[in-house]
Amino acid sequence: MALRHLLPLLVLLITLTHAQPPPLYDFSATPLRTSNFTGILVAGGLPSKSTSPFPLTASDHIYGLDLGGNEAHWVDLANGGLKVTGHAAVRVGSGSVVVLFGVETYETVPVTYARNPVTVFHVANRSFTPVNVVGDPSPSPRAGHVAVYDAGRKYVWMWGGAGGPDHETTLRELWLLDLSVSPAKWTRMPDATSDMKAGTVAAVAAFLQNRWLVICFGTEAASSSPSNSCGVFDTQKRE
Q1: What pLDDT is recorded for position 87?
Q2: Residue 207 phi/psi, 5° resolution?
Q3: How many Cα atoms sit within 13 Å of 42 on the Cβ side?
Q4: Chain centre distance of CA 178
Q5: What is the pTM of this model?
Q6: Strand 96-100 relative to strand 118-122: parallel, antiparallel, unpaired?
Q7: Low-confidence ranges of the chain (pLDDT < 70)
Q8: Strands 133-134 and 184-188, bridge-based pairing
Q9: Facing residues of 234 across strands?
């Protein structure tokens, strides 16, 4: 590769070394574009095990990697309003991110789960709003799940996770969070679990053609055997 092709990458790497977040893992990264921010929102996560004593406590920061200018740079958007890791986050609208479940502290029994199961972060004023959600039943506390957003219907689809006091209970469940109604409402999709072959923890998910929920890979709670399978759920027929 010619040197001229490497220069933009080198400039980007040099710029990102300034004021970047500490080493983190198990965070969420959400693409976001507003009138004054274009980039990636990094929420929560755990610090490096080598630099943090047990029990491991989640970060309470939300960072933004701003890609909208001539130089990429990190911005500390908020701290103290949401301490969470192992959560799922989806963009809803142009300037808001919904954060779902997660835990505050690992390596303790019982695990300390997030105090607010559903929270919205508003980028414009850097504020947090707990969402009032109804449902009978509603999802139990969890971490390691995945979620995607159906913008056309204002639905959040949430799959899997691990729960229980020791965070080792497999939650092979698909849930729909309807944000088009007030209060927002949870509905469980019981017919989805039999054909969904993906793992319930650390899977990946995508929402395609305003219809298909695709979930791949992952593992099971308290298991070291990952899945190499995918599942597809028709969100229109709900099967």
Answers
A1: 96
A2: -115, 120
A3: 21
A4: 17
A5: 0.88
A6: antiparallel
A7: 1-19, 48-54, 193-194, 222-224
A8: parallel
A9: 212
